[in-house]
Write a structure and sequence with these properties.
Oligomer: single chain
Structural class: alpha+beta
Strand order of the largest sheet: 1-2-3-4-5-6-7-8
Shape: globular
Number of strands: 16
Order of helices and strands: HHEEEEEEEHEHHEEEEEEEHHEHHH
Number of helices: 10
Strand content: 15-25%
Radius of gyration: 24 Å
Length: 602
């Protein structure tokens, strides 16, 4: 299956989840106050009872900070729905972390942070962007007017649980449960409390919000919930947004976090101004498809894609919407790209393309950050910024890029896309794959049907919407039926350059290699523009590589001018691996000459 033959890691739901990484560090800063080995919900079971209403005195929008004050480097916007009759509380939250240079890069959205985005190490927003693909976290709680055993003697308290799914195979994965306790809550003042994290939750435990049998990670974390527009309003809310619509996209925070009756034109992320009241869907997107969810017993199966979407007119005529995609797949059974044969995925969501061992190059503290990344980033995920080169394993682009077409269906407010991932080089594990997806154009949440192992004539033939299986007699594998699809529009539009190689995603997803096409938008090594001025010319690039000629990696070697060998089976000399530590004639000098382009990446 072209462009879907390698494993992928995607920061999900905060499929890409810098927020959770920050929690670990904040927890460490908070110190250890103990923590139970095994806990269960206290009071009424959190997942039973009447649905929460909106008539309770604790209902509303809150800003949350873990470790309020100078170290509040994890923040959320939370909606609570308190039913005054049952004292049940429904929760929906959008959260982000703000600690640079720490954590596993598998949990970084798309595997790379574009300069000017991501964590800044300052309490409160910004960040984001980049924006996460997943839906808001959801949970439930209980208000105890007379107190509870968990409330440490308080006259009243709130006990609530939230699930954070699809965190990958790291410290907190595959799923995380968080318990929050607020003694003596009051909507008119800051609500201060403590939180506990329960990593390693199974799918069942996460979905049922039941931490029974799980061990709390470290000690208690202090947090505060602050009411926008009141005396307890956070300083970052005052400086960066309004009390009703933080991102200023025309949909209030309450509307965007309304998981039951969200207005049709509203997105689901109160931090993102790009997901509500959209007139034109054109732009750069991150997508995640979850075919099989990872559990405590092992990994699942995921597809991660970068896409350029373009809309013609109002988008309502079939063909008005086109989506050009490059995807990675991640499962135990899928072989890595042709450049790294035999390497399979781990079956856990995470960030970026697949990984294979790459040796260190030059000074590991200066030469191993990905192009455009800050020197403080921890590329290989061991907790030490830039102490070694990252591992990379990129896909080949030896056939035309995939293009899906579709339209906006005004009848049910959905974006519908379909098309064929052609296996033109006969090396894909899934052969030809036909897909049909349906998703909300604002939230990006929907489903996709995937027909693998298809005959090429069927896959590329003309089919009425929703009739592919009936037309062809193709069997839809049960696991590929209505798989979860989430996507998000990222800032930058057609100029967005995820891999920071000087060639935007939209250009790399085209079919003309002379202007940057037939490339992998995750791979920073396949557009040989060393000074990133948009062209590959004699003085800025070719002479730059020649002047750093080095057969032993000694001065004047510089990793910026270095490329590894072409990826096996790649489309051409531009499909390159990471720097190999030397700058020679055949791999580097002739490599940059072969990409000579005064037209540039357009």
């Amino acid at each position: 299956m072209q462009h879907m033959r390698t494993r992928m890691r995607m920061g999900v739901g905060l499929v890409a989840m810098m927020a959770v990484l920050a929690l670990v560090v904040v927890m460490t800063m908070a110190g250890s106050n103990g923590g139970s080995d095994s806990v269960s919900a206290v009071g009424p079971t959190p997942t039973t009872g009447p649905n929460p209403g909106t008539d309770g005195f604790l209902s509303g929008i809150y800003d949350l900070e873990v470790n309020p004050g100078a170290n509040a480097l994890y923040h959320c916007i939370i909606r609570t729905d308190h039913d005054a009759g049952t004292n049940r509380i429904g929760l929906a939250a959008s959260c982000f972390g703000d600690l640079p240079g720490l954590g596993d890069p598998a949990n970084v959205l798309d595997g790379v942070i574009v300069p000017g985005e991501g964590p800044d190490g300052i309490s409160g927003p910004p960040p984001p962007p980049p924006y996460a693909t997943g839906a808001a976290y959801t949970g439930v709680g209980e208000y105890f007017p007379g107190g509870d055993a968990l409330c440490s003697g308080a006259s009243s308290c709130i006990v609530s649980f939230i699930c954070v799914p699809d965190l990958g195979a790291g410290l907190l994965g595959p799923n995380l449960l968080a318990r929050f306790i607020i003694p003596d809550p009051s909507p008119s003042a800051a609500q201060l409390g403590t939180a506990e994290l329960f990593p390693g939750a199974s799918v069942k435990q996460c979905d049922s919000l039941d931490p029974t049998g799980l061990t709390a990670l470290g000690g208690l974390l202090d947090f505060g919930m602050f009411t926008p527009g009141s005396a307890s309003e956070t300083s970052w809310r005052t400086a960066a947004g309004s009390a009703t619509d933080f991102d200023g996209d025309g949909c209030s925070d309450l509307e965007e976090l309304d998981v039951k009756s969200r207005p049709a034109n509203c997105g689901d992320d109160p931090y993102s101004p790009l997901d509500s009241n959209i007139a034109d869907l054109s732009g750069s997107y991150s997508l995640l498809t979850r075919v099989a969810r990872a559990d405590v017993a092992g990994g699942g199966a995921y597809f991660s894609c970068l896409a350029d979407i373009q809309q013609t007119g109002d988008g309502t005529t079939d063909g008005d919407i086109t989506a050009r995609l490059f995807c990675y797949q991640d499962s135990f059974s899928v072989i890595n790209s042709l450049g790294y044969p035999g390497v399979t995925g781990d079956g856990y969501s995470g960030g970026g393309p697949p990984y294979a061992a790459i040796p260190a190059v030059g000074d590991p503290e200066t030469d191993c950050s990905r192009f455009g990344n800050a020197a403080t980033l921890d590329d290989d995920g061991d907790g030490i910024p830039n102490d070694g080169c990252p591992s990379e394993g990129f896909g080949d682009t030896d056939s035309s890029q995939t293009e899906l077409t579709g339209f906006l269906d005004t009848a049910d407010n959905t974006l519908k896309l379909r098309g064929c991932f052609e296996d033109e080089d006969a090396s894909g594990t899934l052969i030809n794959v036909y897909i049909e997806s349906v998703q909300n154009p604002n939230t990006g949440i929907g489903t996709v049907d995937i027909w693998a192992l298809q005959d090429l004539s069927d896959c590329t033939g003309s089919h009425a919407w929703g009739s592919y299986g009936a037309d062809t007699g193709a069997e839809l594998l049960e696991a590929f039926d209505d798989a979860l699809l989430t996507s998000v529009r990222q800032p930058g539009g057609q100029s967005r350059d995820t891999d920071q190689d000087g060639c935007p995603n939209a250009s790399e997803l085209r079919d003309d290699p002379a202007i940057g096409g037939l490339r992998d938008p995750y791979n920073p090594y396949d557009w040989y523009d060393v000074n990133q001025d948009g062209v590959i010319d004699l003085f800025g690039d070719i002479l730059g590589v020649i002047s750093h000629y080095s057969l032993d990696g000694a001065d004047p070697y510089d990793a910026i001018y270095d490329r590894g060998a072409p990826i096996t089976g790649g489309a051409g000399s531009w499909s390159r691996r990471a720097p190999d530590g030397v700058i020679d004639l055949f791999t580097d000098i002739l490599g940059v000459i072969s990409q000579y382009s005064l037209t540039g990446c357009i």
